[in-house]
Amino acid sequence: MAGVIVIFDFDKTIIDCDSDNWVVDGLGATALFEELLPTMPWNSLMDRMMSELHSQGKTIEDIVDCLRTAPLHPQVISAIKTAHALGCELRIVSDANYFFIETILKHHGLFDYFSEINTNPGFVDEEGKLRIQPYHDLFNSASHGCTNPCPQTCASVSNGIHNSYTQALCINYQVSLGSVELGTYGRQIHGSSQLKGLIIKRIQDAMLSEGKKRIIYLGDGKGDYCPSLKLGEGDFMMPRKNYPVWELITSNPLLLKTEIHGWSDAEELEKVLLKLINILLSADKKTPELLSMDWKFQPVSRLPHEAFPQVLRVPN
Ligand SMILES: [Mg+2]
């Protein structure tokens, strides 16, 4: 196994849409969603929407069928498979939910390529209703120790994570915060940046004992900004061009310690990702590049100085 961990955001990175919006729109609940959005935290609203859809007779199978139509480009699939074949460890850090991600990845035969999925818990209850646990929202209402210079847009953000580690973290924050006051925010305004940053920090700490050396991070949203600040020299940040994380990074790239390599679409994602993996593997082995391809990419900057958790271990 190579000492490279590739961390993917999910929505608008692996799939070319937002999975929450895809299901809400696909099952005809857009109007109610938009009506309630100003009144509820995002993940609480998604849990509410799943309840509403269930009461309207929509089944889990309807949701699964909808998820299977979410756009996932073949070149993203090939990029994932090639990265895995080259020995990289692949993980996901997302503010979607586990049910959506698992369903989509399994549909495309990609689920087993990922060793870890960090996201909000999502499960089917005894009534056959999809439940989405709003850890993200509870975590959302206060600063929680991130010392990065995140903009206000990510200053009160979090993600729900899917393992005992994340759940424990959220519970700890609930305890420390006492009565958590939930605000009226949507995910577009308050992303998952800080919690994602904490996930990255946890991964980095574990890397020390696991012998991993470098991280490549791919994302598009504001929630991916704090992780970019956690990355270190020798890592690579791959923001999607002209998406929120790109705007944040390019507004002051000197805040990042890592190289920045943008991508616009699936084709460019694959080219840039495999090129960067090639660079890291070549440097690791101190041998000529393992792959010979005519790469075309330009980093936004190359700076001499310099980027937390459902963590569910995917059974192999
Ligand atoms: Mg995203």
* Structural class by SSE content: alpha/beta
| Biggest sheet: strand arrangement | 8-7-6-1-2-3-9
What is the helix content?
A: 40-55%
**Mean of residue pLDDT values:** 78
Tell me the fraction of residues in β-strands, as a range: 5-15%
Computed CA radius of gyration, to the nearest angstrom: 19 Å
Low-confidence stretches: 137-146, 150-191, 287-313
Concise structural overview:
Keywords: Hydrolase, Magnesium, Metal-binding. The protein is an alpha/beta fold. The protein has helices at about 20-25, 30-35, 40-55, 60-65, 75-85, 100-105, 135-140, 165-175, 195-210, 225-230, 245-250, 265-285; strands at about 5-10, 90-95, 115-120, 120-125, 130, 215-220, 235-240, 260, 310-315.
Q: Which helices and strands, and how do they pair?
A:
Blueprint: E1 4-8, H1 19-26, H2 30-36, H3 42-55, H4 60-67, H5 74-85, E2 89-97, H6 98-107, E3 114-120, E4 122-124, E5 130-132, H7 135-139, H8 164-177, H9 193-210, E6 214-219, H10 225-230, E7 236-239, H11 244-251, E8 259-260, H12 266-285, E9 312-313
Parallel strand pairs: 1-2, 1-6, 2-3, 6-7, 7-8
Antiparallel strand pairs: 3-9, 4-5
This protein binds magnesium ion (MG).
Descriptive tags:
316 residues; 7-stranded mixed beta sheet; 12 helices; binds magnesium ion
Could you please describe the fold and organization of this structure?
The protein has 316 residues and is α/β, with parallel strands linked by helices. The protein contains twelve helices and nine strands. The chain has helices spanning 19-26, 30-36, 42-55, 60-67, 74-85, 98-107, 135-139, 164-177, 193-210, 225-230, 244-251, 266-285; strands at 4-8, 89-97, 114-120, 122-124, 130-132, 214-219, 236-239, 259-260, 312-313. Strands 8-7-6-1-2-3-9 form a seven-stranded mixed β-sheet. Helix 10 links the parallel strand 6 and strand 7. Helix 5 packs parallel to helix 12. The longest helix has 20 residues, at 266-285. The relative contact order is 0.16. InterPro entries: HAD-like_sf, HAD_hydro_PyrdxlP_Pase-like, HAD_sf, Pase_PHOSPHO-typ. The active site is at 9 (nucleophile), 11 (proton donor). This is Inorganic pyrophosphatase 2. Mg(2+) binds at residues 9, 11, 220. Substrate binds at residues 20, 95.
